[in-house]
Amino acid sequence: MKYKFCPLCGRELVMRDSWDEGKVPYCPIDDKMYFDLPKPCVVVAVIKGNQILLMKQSYIFKNSKVLVSGYVANGESVENTVIREVKEETGLTVNNLKYLGSDVVSESELLMLTFMADYVEGEINKSKEVEWVDWSNIDDAIYQMEEDEVGKRVVKKVLQNINKDKRL
After folding, report:
1. Is the pTM of this model over 0.85?
2. Contact predicate 94/82, CB 8 Å
3. Which of the four CATH numbers 1.10.8, 2.20.70, 1.10.10, 2.40.160 does domain 1-35 have?
4. What is the DSSP letter of 73?
5. pLDDT (tens digit, 9 = 90+) per residue, 27-59?
6. Segment holding 136, helix H or strand E
7. Residues 47-84, buried b or exposed e (16+ Cβ, 10 A)?
8. Which cofactor does it need (predicted)?
9. Would you put residue 31 in left (φ > 0), alpha (ψ -120 to 50) or beta?
């Protein structure tokens, strides 16, 4: 979120130097700085053996399959967001969450927190916001995710983790 107006008094903010953070929006009336905030989201690769759960949501990408994703709600932990989003969008239960790192989609101000999770139970029951969802061979997943660069990076990390686990 980019601040343009003061949330307290409604006046237009000015840019002010904030030492090591550079210039940030500032309200001289309330003497308060407002740092721009990214929108935190989760992206999760649900794994079941050698399969990964892929979805189709045309409002995200027209020609690409995607992983489960969603916004972190106020007062919700990122881990609970992962579990909730998988359940809401697919009807499935997951566990063994593993954090894979973060990614940024700067044009959307999104901070993508990426995870992999193990399928536990449930039958696929897609939500209304999902056009299609099904299991795909994990080795073929990247080729089905033409437009989803963040998703492709997540799948690569999942494959590295799976290959590392096989070597142990």
Report:
1. no
2. yes
3. 2.20.70
4. P
5. 999 999 998 888 999 999 999 999 999 999 988
6. strand 132-137
7. beeebbbbbbbeeeeeebbbbbbbebeeeeeeeebbbe
8. Mg(2+); Zn(2+)
9. left
